[in-house]
Amino acid sequence: MIRVVLADDEAVVRMGVRAVLAAADDIEVVAEADTGRAAVDVVLAHRPDVAVLDIRMPGLTGLDAAAEIRGLGTGTEALVLTTFADDSYISRALGDGIGGFVLKTGDPHDIIAGVRAVAAGAAFLSPPVAKRVVDHLSGSGPRLRTTERITGLTDRERQVLGLVGAGLSNAEIARRIHVVEGTVKVYVSTILTRLDVRNRVQAAVIAYEAGLIPRSRVDRGRDERGT
Questions:
Q1: Tell me, what's the pLDDT at 129?
Q2: Helix, strand, coil % (nearest 5) of the chain?
Q3: pTM above 0.90, yes or no
């Protein structure tokens, strides 16, 4: 089971998200919180796999709570849930290494898919957020064309980058290319360094722009996770 802590200052929203997650037989909400500070406390108490955090909460924001949670050493991944697709929030979330960003106004299944993805060590963005990220990276100051950015990658690294872009976790990639998971971690670390990006989400955007994600791979990866 994927154990989840859910934090939102609106009780009706928590009720709705809990109902959505209850539809997944591999996800369990173990605790709730109505503030960012309470979210940090319940994560420390329950040590869940994923913390689903609203951005705008009284006192400690969801992004600040995510930063504190990472410092606890619990291994809990953060999935940001918000009605706001504001570029400043998205930029900070990606810069801080948050694994997923889901809009409350989007497809409810995105919440389930996001929880599963970040729990497996992958990244997940709601489609509207993904488009904003692509637009942001495409227009953010001087940058090499995507094809030039991936020139320095080996064929194997491009293959791994494509699978990262398809949303697969390190374990799933290892099974796909028949290597141990530790080898995949080395590949991913090298790819992030060579592409000069901070996290898997930004690498996934480059994989998308470079056409390294064949449709069949994306579909098959989703099928394997039941999303």
A1: 72
A2: 55, 15, 30
A3: no
Kindly state the tokens that stand for 4.
Answer: 């989840």
Q: pLDDT tier at 95 (50, 70, 90 boundaries)?
A: low
Average pLDDT over residues 179-183: 91
Instruction: Decide if 53 contacts 7 (C-beta within 8 A).
Output: yes
What counts of helices (H) and strands (E) characterise the chain? 12, 6
For the record, the structure tokens of 120 come out as 């497996």
Torsion of CA 39, 43, 48, 52, to 10 degrees: 20
Q: What is the DSSP letter of 144?
A: -
Radius of gyration of the chain (CA): 17
Whether the Cβ atoms of residue 55 and residue 80 lie closer than 8 Å to each other: yes
Count Cα neighbours of 169 within 13 Å in the Cβ-side half-sphere. Answer: 15
Q: Under 8 Å CB-to-CB from 224, ≥6 apart: which residues?
A: 168, 172
Check whether 222 has a pLDDT greater than 50: no
How many C-alpha atoms does 168 have within 13 Å on its Cβ side?
28
Cα–Cα distance, 14 to 195 (Å, whole number): 38
pLDDT digits (tens, 9 = 90+) for 19-71: 999 999 999 999 999 999 999 999 999 999 999 999 888 888 888 999 899 88
And the tokens for 224? 């394997």
